[in-house]
């Protein structure tokens, strides 16, 4: 694909001809890569995905063969990967980009060649260790019938005090593929439903609109009081009551528990991490942050503000913002890209699409800033869903922009400054409209591309000010203001007037579980005031699909496009309340959502085949195989043997095999719990987390916080299985001896406690987006990203298993809630079944996202472009949790359309991954593959055992 002769629109024009997409630049939209921001800024066109051949099976020949062997890992440390762009991610490299990359210089209308396009460090060619869940084994339950005990046994966990837990017997529902988002029991659906378009009444019954007289008595705009709270009632959730057939009566015997307190209030220990982790100082220093000394989020949406020049975009959705340092337009730049401007690769289906970046629709500034150098950036109160960016001339002269996920307004709160708003697109007109609130002005801002933004200016009583269009690119206030709020929104919907003047500053998360239902709530903290007592927020499709009925009256007739996640819907309310179906029945044992196949069942012949495989697998050298210079690969090996151990204990019930393997697995774990592995872990006192002692190019950037949930999730899962078997057939002391080490890893990637001074809250999981981000301390022109949705699931499933085996019911409930959310979000944004209504239709035939960035979707991987890599990186490891996420219909569609044509040509471990994945909809065919005379050990991924492959595929055969 040649971009050399393509016409390229000027950066000031938002409308881009999709038939002629612009060239790609992965750099800061404000800086010339060659002078490191020391000269005049340059507007750059958006990040482009690497050039690749049209998707076909023939592209296999273009990718070097990758071995399943771990020999290279054992023999030598990882070789640092050369990078040719320090501004971009250091994760594994995408395929080479075209050398004809250019950036647009808005000053001289010339295109500058971009040398050395960015690359990312390399991810492995194969992944996958497989964990099992025991539907019948949840240690939180009272007792099990004899049929259940064929698969597991174990000591009961201690009950929590009665004041915390209310236990009752309920019927458990079978999870099926039937979805109906109109009912609470089926909120796991991922199909977007049409939303009525009538304008809604925003003022609820007991929150009447304020009269002008009442408004005049409002609090000063800089005061920290919240906007008047919205009074929406909270609906009570009831557990499901589906009729159980005879095959489900085992689960009827199980107790379920209701947690009457917020599940985020019960936490892990918050003391110092174990002394086994030596303290280190990170080579990357954070910017100015207040308050100082607290744990800093490393994988959140505002990551670019923490690194390098702090000038790459932050996506709050539906907007992107960045600190602009162009000499003529400096301040906080704002952009919104509608779906009509998305750029798609050629071909059907296209291999990628993205939204242009660097378009300065509007830029907040002030006359007090003479140059960009006058601006000092201070990040205030960074949390997992918000941060406040203060751009200051001095400690008394500044403006603050609260950045909160889903915020409907982009807001600048000025103190002792003269506001200026500029535009790189250019203004046609500034029209003052009638305002519905005293001390507030409303303007319609028409840009040169015929796009209209609405601007609200709110001042304190006694201040007089007007905004004037002084030139085609500049709007200025005619007075310096002690306090003022300027808000912009890419909408002309009049109902938004009732939210103007109120803005979000933070978001508090809470959650509850009852039976098979999980409820989670975003409560937005707000400042200022508005007629409705609330601000404007936009919801992603997976929010809307799971909203409680009480949300309906607060929806307005305003929809905006996200970059990669479909259409967002506006709500004037300070609280999002969502309900999802949670996998209460999911435990250690094999589990499926195939209709009519509720419980594992094995024939004598199947058990004999599993036993033969296990007798060979238990002879493996677990210590040597797992002692590699990668927490990721080591975790895969530990989890592989942990599943073999589980099968030996609970399916085969073979104490001899258990006695052979369990000491080996304990010895292998001891290498890590004693911190004597090749690359020991350390505690980073700078950002506060457990990191590898390797450099940024080793272990996929673990030391820079890449992929922690992937890496540590495997270790936590393996520890849960080992601890369970030790409780039932061993010394019963493995968990007490190693709990602190395991829970240090959990605190690193999934800490629920914002009072923990040693780890940030939920480093990996993004509660707004409903999945994790893998990218750590690396700047990125397209924001955070995640490549393996299935290993994301694995990391959360590991939390549930650890909670089960340690009796932490709050951890179990949090993990259940996360899994329930992920079932909806992943099937909207990562997995594309025929029924998916969120992904662009032209992209749907790819069936999976590949790498999902905040700003682009690329159907590739960091380690190669073979179709088995791209599809199956979203499947490994196949565990009991896989079927909860990857529905039988989706797996069938993906296999028939993309994998069946190539599976017989795959001769490495990806073939085994593909065929175990088939067990999610056709267990008989999967089992037949693993027992066929032509089966070869080379078909197994290094993290996959034949024992587990047979045990899982035969369970529902």
TrEMBL record:
<keyword id="KW-0326">Glycosidase</keyword>
<dbReference type="GO" id="GO:0030036">
    <property type="term" value="P:actin cytoskeleton organization"/>
</dbReference>
<keyword id="KW-0624">Polysaccharide degradation</keyword>
<dbReference type="GO" id="GO:0052861">
    <property type="term" value="F:endo-1,3(4)-beta-glucanase activity"/>
</dbReference>
<dbReference type="InterPro" id="IPR040720">
    <property type="entry name" value="GH81_C"/>
</dbReference>
<feature type="region of interest" description="Disordered">
    <location>
        <begin position="1"/>
        <end position="132"/>
    </location>
</feature>
<dbReference type="GO" id="GO:0009986">
    <property type="term" value="C:cell surface"/>
</dbReference>
<feature type="domain" description="Glycosyl hydrolase family 81 N-terminal">
    <location>
        <begin position="282"/>
        <end position="592"/>
    </location>
</feature>
<feature type="compositionally biased region" description="Polar residues">
    <location>
        <begin position="207"/>
        <end position="219"/>
    </location>
</feature>
<feature type="domain" description="Glycosyl hydrolase family 81 C-terminal">
    <location>
        <begin position="602"/>
        <end position="950"/>
    </location>
</feature>
<dbReference type="InterPro" id="IPR005200">
    <property type="entry name" value="Endo-beta-glucanase"/>
</dbReference>
<comment type="similarity">
    <text>Belongs to the glycosyl hydrolase 81 family.</text>
</comment>
<dbReference type="GO" id="GO:0071555">
    <property type="term" value="P:cell wall organization"/>
</dbReference>
<dbReference type="GO" id="GO:0042973">
    <property type="term" value="F:glucan endo-1,3-beta-D-glucosidase activity"/>
</dbReference>
<protein>
    <recommendedName>
        <fullName>glucan endo-1,3-beta-D-glucosidase</fullName>
        <ecNumber>3.2.1.39</ecNumber>
    </recommendedName>
</protein>
<feature type="compositionally biased region" description="Polar residues">
    <location>
        <begin position="66"/>
        <end position="85"/>
    </location>
</feature>
<dbReference type="GO" id="GO:0000272">
    <property type="term" value="P:polysaccharide catabolic process"/>
</dbReference>
<dbReference type="Pfam" id="PF17652">
    <property type="entry name" value="Glyco_hydro81C"/>
</dbReference>
<feature type="region of interest" description="Disordered">
    <location>
        <begin position="204"/>
        <end position="242"/>
    </location>
</feature>
<dbReference type="Pfam" id="PF03639">
    <property type="entry name" value="Glyco_hydro_81"/>
</dbReference>
<feature type="compositionally biased region" description="Low complexity">
    <location>
        <begin position="99"/>
        <end position="108"/>
    </location>
</feature>
<keyword id="KW-0378">Hydrolase</keyword>
<feature type="compositionally biased region" description="Basic residues">
    <location>
        <begin position="51"/>
        <end position="65"/>
    </location>
</feature>
<keyword id="KW-0961">Cell wall biogenesis/degradation</keyword>
<keyword id="KW-0119">Carbohydrate metabolism</keyword>
<dbReference type="InterPro" id="IPR040451">
    <property type="entry name" value="GH81_N"/>
</dbReference>
């Amino acid at each position: 694909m040649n971009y050399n002769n393509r016409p390229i629109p000027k950066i000031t024009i938002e409308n881009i001809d999709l038939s002629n997409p612009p060239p790609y630049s992965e750099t800061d939209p404000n800086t010339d890569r060659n002078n490191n921001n020391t000269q005049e800024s340059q507007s750059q066109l958006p990040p482009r995905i690497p050039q690749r051949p049209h998707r076909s099976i023939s592209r296999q020949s273009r990718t070097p063969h990758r071995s399943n062997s771990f020999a290279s890992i054992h023999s030598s440390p990882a070789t640092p990967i050369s990078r040719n762009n320090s501004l971009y991610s250091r994760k594994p490299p995408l395929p080479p980009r075209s050398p004809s990359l250019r950036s647009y210089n808005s000053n001289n209308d010339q295109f500058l060649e971009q040398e050395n396009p960015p690359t990312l460090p390399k991810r492995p060619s194969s992944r996958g260790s497989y964990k099992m869940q025991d539907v019948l084994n949840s240690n939180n339950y009272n007792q099990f019938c004899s049929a259940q005990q064929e698969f597991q046994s174990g000591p009961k966990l201690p009950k929590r005090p009665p004041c915390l837990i209310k236990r009752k017997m309920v019927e458990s529902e079978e999870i099926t593929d039937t979805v109906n988002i109109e009912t609470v029991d089926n909120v796991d659906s991922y199909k977007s439903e049409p939303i009525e378009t009538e304008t809604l009444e925003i003022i609820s019954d007991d929150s009447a609109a304020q009269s002008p007289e009442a408004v005049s008595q409002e609090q000063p705009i800089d005061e920290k009081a919240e906007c008047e709270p919205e009074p929406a009632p909270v609906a009570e959730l009831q557990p499901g009551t589906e009729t159980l057939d005879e095959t489900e009566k085992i689960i009827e015997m199980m107790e379920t528990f209701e947690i009457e307190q917020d599940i985020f209030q019960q936490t892990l220990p918050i003391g110092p991490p174990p002394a086994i982790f030596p303290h280190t100082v990170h080579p990357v220093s954070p910017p100015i942050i207040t308050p100082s000394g607290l744990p800093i989020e490393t994988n959140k949406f505002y990551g670019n503000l923490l690194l390098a020049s702090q000038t790459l975009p932050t996506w709050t959705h539906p907007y992107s913002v960045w600190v602009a340092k162009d000499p003529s337009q400096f301040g906080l730049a704002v952009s919104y890209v509608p779906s009509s401007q998305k750029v798609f690769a050629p071909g059907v289906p296209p291999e990628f699409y993205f939204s242009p970046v660097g378009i300065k629709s509007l830029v907040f500034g002030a006359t007090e800033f003479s140059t960009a150098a006058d601006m000092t950036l201070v990040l205030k109160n960074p949390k997992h869903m918000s941060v406040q960016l203060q751009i200051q001339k001095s400690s008394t002269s500044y403006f603050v922009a609260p950045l909160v996920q889903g915020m409907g307004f982009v807001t600048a709160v000025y103190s002792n400054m003269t506001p200026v708003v500029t535009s790189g697109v250019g203004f046609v007109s500034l029209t003052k409209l009638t305002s519905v609130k005293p001390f507030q002005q409303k303007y319609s801002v028409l840009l040169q591309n015929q796009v209209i933004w609405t601007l609200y200016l709110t001042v304190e009583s006694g201040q007089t000010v007007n905004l004037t269009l002084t030139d085609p690119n500049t709007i200025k206030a005619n007075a310096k203001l002690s306090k003022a709020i300027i808000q912009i929104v890419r909408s002309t919907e009049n109902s938004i007037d009732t939210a103007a003047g109120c803005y979000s500053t933070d978001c508090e998360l809470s959650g509850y579980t009852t039976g098979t239902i999980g409820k989670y709530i975003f409560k937005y903290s707000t400042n200022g005031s508005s007629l409705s007592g609330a601000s404007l927020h936009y919801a992603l499709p997976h929010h809307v699909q799971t909203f409680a009925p009480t949300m309906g009256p607060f929806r307005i007739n305003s929809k905006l496009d996200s970059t990669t996640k479909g259409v967002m819907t506006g709500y004037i309310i300070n609280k999002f309340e969502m309900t999802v179906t949670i996998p209460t029945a999911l435990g250690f044992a094999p589990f499926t959502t195939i209709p009519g196949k509720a419980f594992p069942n094995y024939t004598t012949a199947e058990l004999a085949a599993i036993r033969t495989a296990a007798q060979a697998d238990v002879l493996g050298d677990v210590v040597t195989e797992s002692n590699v210079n990668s927490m990721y690969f080591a975790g895969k090996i530990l989890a592989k043997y942990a599943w073999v151990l589980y099968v030996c204990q609970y399916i085969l019930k073979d104490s001899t095999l258990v006695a052979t393997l369990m000491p080996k697995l304990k010895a292998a774990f001891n290498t890590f719990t004693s911190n004597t592995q090749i690359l020991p872990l350390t505690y980073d006192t700078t950002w506060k987390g457990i990191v590898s002692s390797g450099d940024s190019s080793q272990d996929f950037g673990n030391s820079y916080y890449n992929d922690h949930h992937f890496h540590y999730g495997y270790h936590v899962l393996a520890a849960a299985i080992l601890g369970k078997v030790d409780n039932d057939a061993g010394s019963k002391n493995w968990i007490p001896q190693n709990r602190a080490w395991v829970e240090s890893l959990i605190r690193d990637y999934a800490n629920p406690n914002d009072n923990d001074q040693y780890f940030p809250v939920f480093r990996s999981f993004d509660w707004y987006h409903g999945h994790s981000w893998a990218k750590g301390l690396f700047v990125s022109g397209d924001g955070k990203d995640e490549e393996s949705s299935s290993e994301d699931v694995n990391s959360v499933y590991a939390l549930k298993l650890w909670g089960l085996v340690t009796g932490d019911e709050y951890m179990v409930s949090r993990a259940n809630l996360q899994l329930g959310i992920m079932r909806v979000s992943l099937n909207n944004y990562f997995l594309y079944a025929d029924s998916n209504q969120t992904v662009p239709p032209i992209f749907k035939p790819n069936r999976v996202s590949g790498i999902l960035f905040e700003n682009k979707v690329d159907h590739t991987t960091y380690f190669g472009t073979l179709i088995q890599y791209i599809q199956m990186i979203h499947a490994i490891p196949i565990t009991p949790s896989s079927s909860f996420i990857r529905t039988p219909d989706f797996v069938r569609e993906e296999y028939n359309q993309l994998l069946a044509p190539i599976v017989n040509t795959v001769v490495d471990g990806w073939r085994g991954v593909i065929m175990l994945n088939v067990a999610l909809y056709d267990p008989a065919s999967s089992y037949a593959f693993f027992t066929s005379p032509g089966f070869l050990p080379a078909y197994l991924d290094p993290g996959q055992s034949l024992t587990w492959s047979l045990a899982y595929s035969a369970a529902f055969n």
